[in-house]
Amino acid sequence: MKMQRIRIKDVAREAGVALSTAALALRDDSKLREETRRVVREAAARLGYVYDRSAAMMRSGRSHTIGLLVCEITNPFYAELTAGVEEALDQAGYVTMLANTAESAERQRRMLERFREQPVDGVLIMPATGTPASLSEELRAWQLPHATVVRSFRRGAHAGPDNRAGTRLATEHLLALGHRRIAFLGGAAKNSVSTGRWEGYARAMARAGLTPEHLPCRTDIGEASVVAEALTAKGPTALVCFNDSVAFGAGMGLQRGGRMPGRDVALVGFDDVREAAHWYPPLTTIRVAPHVIGQAAARVLLHRITDPAAEPLREILPPALVIRESCGAQQRRAA
Amino acid sequence: MKMQRIRIKDVAREAGVALSTAALALRDDSKLREETRRVVREAAARLGYVYDRSAAMMRSGRSHTIGLLVCEITNPFYAELTAGVEEALDQAGYVTMLANTAESAERQRRMLERFREQPVDGVLIMPATGTPASLSEELRAWQLPHATVVRSFRRGAHAGPDNRAGTRLATEHLLALGHRRIAFLGGAAKNSVSTGRWEGYARAMARAGLTPEHLPCRTDIGEASVVAEALTAKGPTALVCFNDSVAFGAGMGLQRGGRMPGRDVALVGFDDVREAAHWYPPLTTIRVAPHVIGQAAARVLLHRITDPAAEPLREILPPALVIRESCGAQQRRAA
DNA sequence: TCATCAGAGTGGAACGTTCCAATTCGACCG
DNA sequence: CGGTCGAATTGGAACGTTCCACTCTGATGA
Question: Any idea where the HTH lacI-type domain is (chains A, B) (predicted)?
Answer without folding.
Answer: 6-60
